[in-house]
Design goal:
The chain is mostly helical. The chain contains three helices and no strands. One of its GO terms (cellular component) is membrane.
């Protein structure tokens, strides 16, 4: 296909791969494309939110455990210092 033919040929008539067809579909049906995109990505957003929440809880528990161990160690050192 020469450069002149590409200018005259509408983009819908050009054969292409799946990505080309997807771009054509998105250009001709933008709202439907956005709807399908959100529909397909919604489970990923949900999984991401759940994993973020789980990570936040794990970090919070780790911080509590660390502070509890530090308090315990400080108390043990106080008791040992008083007994000597």
């Amino acid at each position: 296909m020469s450069g002149d033919d590409a200018i005259k040929t509408p983009i819908e008539d050009v054969e292409g791969g799946w990505l080309h067809q997807l771009v054509i579909y998105a250009a001709t049906n933008p709202w439907e494309f956005c709807w399908y995109l959100l529909l397909c990505l919604s489970p990923m957003f949900f999984i991401s939110a759940m994993l973020s929440w789980k990570l936040a809880k794990a970090l919070e528990a780790q911080e509590k455990d660390k502070s509890r161990k530090e308090k315990r160690k400080a108390n043990m050192n106080k008791v040992r210092a008083k007994s000597h």
